[in-house]
Amino acid sequence: MLLNRKTVNAYYNEFRRLILEHSLREQEKELGEFELDESYFGARRVRGKRGRGAAGKTPIFGLLRRNGKVFVTVDPNCSREELMPII
């Protein structure tokens, strides 16, 4: 079965429109109670700093909406400027 180029383009554009609408809905600000935290994953502690000062660890930031969605991101900086847009 062969499809016309115009038909394929019409389907392609419709799929793109639907994906855009879905991603815009996902980005809307949500209301409710949220919990957030950061954790550091990596090698076991080898005599030295823990937490933010630990070398060789990967910082993970998580945001949980009560009775809802979970958002997790790897944020190597973990600074206020990086986290405030996410929050």
Rg over CA atoms: 21 Å
Write down the secondary-structure element order: HEEEH
The description of the largest β-sheet is: 3 strands, antiparallel
Shape: elongated
**Total beta-strand segments:** 3
- The helix content is 25-40%
Strand order of the largest sheet: 1-2-3
Distance between the termini: 49 Å
Number of H- or I-type helical stretches: 2
Strand content: 25-35%
Q: Briefly note the structural class of the backbone.
A: alpha+beta
Q: Which whole number gives the mean pLDDT?
A: 77
Low-confidence stretches: none
In short:
The protein has 87 residues and is α+β, with helices and mostly antiparallel strands.
Account of the 3D structure:
With 87 residues, this protein is of the alpha+beta class. It has a domain at 34-83. The protein contains 2 helices and 3 strands; from the N terminus they run αβββα. Strands 1-2-3 form a 3-stranded antiparallel sheet, with no helix packed on it. It is elongated.
Task: Quickly list its features.
2 helices; alpha+beta; three-stranded antiparallel sheet; 3 strands; 31% helix
Secondary structure blueprint with pairings:
Blueprint lengths: L4 H23 L6 E9 L14 E9 L4 E5 L5 H4 L4
Antiparallel strand pairs: 1-2, 2-3
